[in-house]
Each structure stands twice: as C-alpha cells, then as structure tokens.
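Students often ask why inverse folding is considered easier than folding. One informal answer: many sequences map to the same fold, so there is more than one right answer. In these notes we will look at a single instance of the problem. The structure comes first.
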C-alpha cells in the first residue's frame, strides 16, 4: 500500500460509512481472525460495520470475540443482502478473486460500494479500488495488523483485536513453523501478546478441543495414506462414506493434509476429500521447499493459493482423481524425484 492509498483509506474512514467485511467461503482461522479483528477496530472507531461470511465455519473458531455478531449469508440471507446493497465500503479479506465467495459473488458484483482488498494470495484480481496485496506476508491477520499500523492505530489494538489476529497468524503459519514466518511475524505476535492475546488459551481452543469422532476420523485418514517414496509424495483419501461413519462436522479434517509432510523425506502431501453434496472431490496440497503447489493446483485441479499451500477440486470420482494425480507425478521428476 502506498502513501496515496493510505491517505485515501484515512479519508474514507474519517467519515461515517456502512461497512461490510467479507472472508472467503469455508473460512479458516486467518479468515475469521482477520475479519473479526478488523471489525472490532472499525467499530471502536465508531463505524457501522458487520462481518458477513459466505457459509459456516468450524466449531473451534467460534470462541473468538465478536463471533455472535457474524452474519452467515446462508442463514440470514435477506439481512446479509440488505447490508451488502446498502454498504458504502466493502473489505474483502484473505482472498483475491470474487469467485472465492460462492453464492455471495453476484451480490458483491452488483454492490455499489468502494472495495478494499487485504490479502496475501498470489495473482490478485482487480475488482477493488484499493488493493493491499502482499504474498510475502504470513497471513491476512499480519496484514490487518500492518494496515492498522499504517493508519496510525496500533495504540487502539484492544485485547479482542489481539486475540483474533493472534489466532489467524498462528493457524496460517502452522503455529509459526511455515517458511512464511518471519522475524517480523514474531514481532507482531509479541506485540499482540503485550496487548492481551492469550496465547496459551488460543492454542488450547483451536488445537486441543478434539472430539473422539474426529480423532477416529484422523485414524481412518492415516490408514488410507498412500506413500509414493519415489516421488517424495504422500496422499490421503477420505470418502463421503468414511466421513459419515465418523460423524463428520465442518473443520474436522483441518490439518490432516500436513501429516504427510511429517514423514521423513516427503516434500509433497495431498488430501482428497469427497463431497457428495457438491459433487466434487475437495483437494488440499502442501509442500516444503521449491515445489510450487500453487502452480500445480492451478494447472491441474482448478485451484491455487500459495507456493507451499494450495487448494483445488476435481469433478470425477476419488479413484479417478487419484489415478489422474499419480499419472501427473512423472512430469515433475525434476522437483520430486529423489
Ligand atoms: Mn490466509
């Protein structure tokens, strides 16, 4: 964000606005943390603001302060539509293409508001009047901190804001271990703790509130893991039947894909999850090092994301999808071969 853009944001926020803040569909910790963190900040400034999510999100994110005020577009459709149509300012957080918000896409496209994008994914679209895009950032939450800092508002970061932003940075960095974690990330985290982020409590609420059914589902996923040592690749499949048998709830498979990378020598991990309702296989890709899963997902699986973490989908069965996936690997021997 340059000086001019900061000044235009300051000018916008110096007047009363009707603000809507939107994260991507199937919001994760960074999406919920960043939208709620920004929401508290704007509300404390006296702005009329609301967070509208395209659909539901996992139980382990629902402790965040402000959660009760989030409007779910699927559940409170008319209220959400009204707020979007009346909005003068719309923030889109943790995504950069309006195709990432599902049913809400057409509402936002027809909205008569100024758009501000804050996001750290690659290849941003150009729908926003102000685009704050930085792919070097660990998380959108780190960007919201920086955004607030640029507005001269760091002193206005309350413990509510600190808790929300901490949660998003923690989840998007895999608890501060991914390559995107910088010394700057740790400085931001340190300041958030100083401002009241309850780090131990946040870790517990996100990572240590499993149900027995979820642990059994993890067991099933790990049993299904296929290890292709030759390609330094490991993948997991979960069918709809297996999900149903373990009382699957949204968010239950969060983090499963990363187990492949805990194997010595494995640098590419994938999970294929069947979704009968949507008629697709949802795919998550993770890598360590130079192998870009963003490129891989974009090229072969209608997706994208970051160099080391991306998503995609497939419209054929799990068996056909994994067969196709395995057939691609020999094309990447320069990156994957031992
Ligand atoms: Mn993110």
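Output (designed amino acids):
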């Amino acid at each position: 964000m340059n000086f001019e853009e900061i000044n235009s944001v300051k000018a916008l926020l110096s007047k009363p606005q009707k603000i809507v803040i939107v994260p991507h569909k199937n919001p994760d910790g960074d999406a919920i943390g960043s939208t709620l963190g920004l929401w508290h900040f704007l509300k404390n400034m006296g702005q009329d603001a609301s967070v509208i999510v395209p659909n539901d999100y996992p139980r382990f994110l629902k402790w965040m302060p402000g959660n009760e005020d989030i409007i779910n577009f699927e559940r409170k459709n008319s209220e959400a539509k009204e707020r979007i149509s009346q909005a003068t300012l719309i923030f889109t957080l943790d995504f950069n293409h309006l195709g990432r918000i599902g049913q809400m896409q057409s509402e936002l496209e027809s909205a008569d508001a100024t758009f501000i994008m804050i996001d750290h994914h690659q290849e941003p679209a150009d729908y926003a009047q102000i685009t704050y895009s930085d792919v070097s950032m660990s998380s959108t939450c780190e960007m919201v901190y920086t955004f607030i800092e640029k507005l001269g508002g760091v002193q206005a970061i309350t413990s509510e804001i600190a808790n929300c932003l901490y949660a998003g940075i923690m989840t998007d960095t895999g608890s501060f271990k991914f390559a995107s974690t910088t010394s700057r990330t740790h400085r931001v985290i340190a300041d958030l703790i100083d401002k009241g982020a309850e780090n131990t409590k946040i870790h517990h609420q996100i990572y240590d509130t499993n149900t027995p059914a979820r642990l059994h589902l993890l067991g099933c996923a790990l049993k299904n893991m296929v290890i292709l040592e030759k390609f330094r690749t490991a993948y997991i499949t979960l069918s709809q039947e297996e999900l149903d048998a373990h009382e699957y709830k949204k968010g239950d498979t969060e983090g499963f894909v990363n187990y492949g990378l805990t194997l010595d020598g494995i640098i590419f991990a994938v999970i294929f999850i069947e979704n009968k309702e949507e008629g697709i296989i949802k795919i998550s890709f993770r890598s360590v090092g130079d192998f870009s899963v963003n490129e891989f997902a974009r090229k072969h699986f209608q997706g994208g994301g970051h160099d080391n973490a991306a998503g995609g989908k497939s419209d054929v069965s799990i068996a056909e999808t994994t067969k196709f996936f395995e057939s691609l690997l020999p094309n990447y021997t320069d990156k994957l071969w031992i």
